[in-house]
Structures are given as C-alpha cells and as structure tokens.
C-alpha cells in the first residue's frame, strides 16, 4: 500500500473509533441523565449555556447538524419541560429567539453531575496524559471539518 493510501486508511479507522465511542458514550450518558433527558436535548441546552441566548432555531439546528424540523421538535420538548423560552425576534417579527431558562441551566448542571461518575470511572481506566495529548489533534480535525460543512 502507498503512503497516501495508508494515511486515508488510518483516518478512516480514526473516525470509525470516534463514531463508535460517541455512540457508546451517548448511550451510557443517556442511561444516567435526569428525567430521561436525551443527548440531543442535553446538547442543545449545553450549547445555549456555552454560547449564550438569543439564537434562532435555524442557527441552533446548524450548530447541532440537524434539520430545522428535527430542531423544532426537540425545542418543543425542551420548552414544554420549561428548559427554554421562545421569544419573538425584535428585528424580524417572523423569526424566534431561543433562551435557556434557569430550569434549563439547572438541568445542564444536573446532567453533568449525573454523568460525572461515569466519566470519573473512565478517567481511572486511561492515562489522562495520553488523552490530553490527543486533544489538539481532535480539535484540529473538528475545526477542519467544521470549516468544510457549509
């Protein structure tokens, strides 16, 4: 095999491992999250708590890499649970802005607390220095992929 083919094969293996790890960790985390919260719901609430309020459903859908229809459904579930509030856009009356509520912020804290023992278990099983050393590679790949998604 050529060096170029080996490189491609290595990246495919790498992404396969990341995908399987994401799926397994997501299922593990969903089992312990409070009130049956899904990873999709947690992801949206965590996104809003990190980047701030006032995003439109389309902006959040783009960030989460899902369709507007899927986002509308998930936002409806979060709103019924009292985790977010939908407000009219002051600049564009046809659009809405999403804000995380205090209950939503508490739900993020509770979900992180519920997942913490699972993460602590994993931290005891691996060399954290190795994980730390791999972060720049994963971050670079994420940034490259993010730049190419549009």
Automatic annotation (TrEMBL):
SMART domains: HTH_MARR
Statement: the UniProt record of this protein carries the keyword ATP-binding: no
Protein's UniProt keywords contain Disulfide bond: no
Gene3D superfamilies referenced in this protein's UniProt entry, alphabetically: Winged helix-like DNA-binding domain superfamily/Winged helix DNA-binding domain (1.10.10.10)
Superkingdom as given in the UniProt entry: Bacteria
Cleaved signal peptide residues: none
One record GO biological process: response to stress
PROSITE patterns associated with the record: HTH_MARR_1, HTH_MARR_2
Domain named HTH marR-type: residues: 1-143
Pfam families on file: MarR_2
Keywords for the protein's UniProt record, in alphabetical order: DNA-binding, Transcription, Transcription regulation
Cross-referenced CDD domains: HTH_ARSR
GO molecular function: DNA binding; DNA-binding transcription factor activity
Protein name (database record): MarR family transcriptional regulator
Organism: Rhizobium setariae
């Amino acid at each position: 095999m050529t060096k170029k083919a080996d490189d491609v094969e290595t990246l495919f293996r790498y992404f396969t491992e990341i995908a399987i790890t994401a799926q397994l960790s997501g299922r593990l985390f969903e089992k312990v999250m409070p009130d049956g919260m899904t990873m999709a719901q947690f992801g949206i609430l965590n996104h809003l708590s990190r980047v701030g309020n006032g995003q439109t459903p389309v902006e959040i859908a783009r960030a989460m890499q899902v369709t507007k229809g899927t986002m509308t459904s998930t936002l409806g579930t979060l709103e019924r649970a009292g985790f977010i509030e939908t407000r009219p856009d002051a600049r564009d009356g046809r659009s809405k802005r999403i804000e995380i509520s205090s209950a939503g912020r508490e739900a993020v804290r509770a979900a992180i607390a519920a997942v913490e023992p699972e993460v602590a278990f994993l931290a005891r099983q691996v060399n954290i220095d190795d994980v730390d050393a791999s972060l720049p590679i994963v971050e670079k790949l994420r940034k490259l992929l993010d730049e190419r998604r549009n």
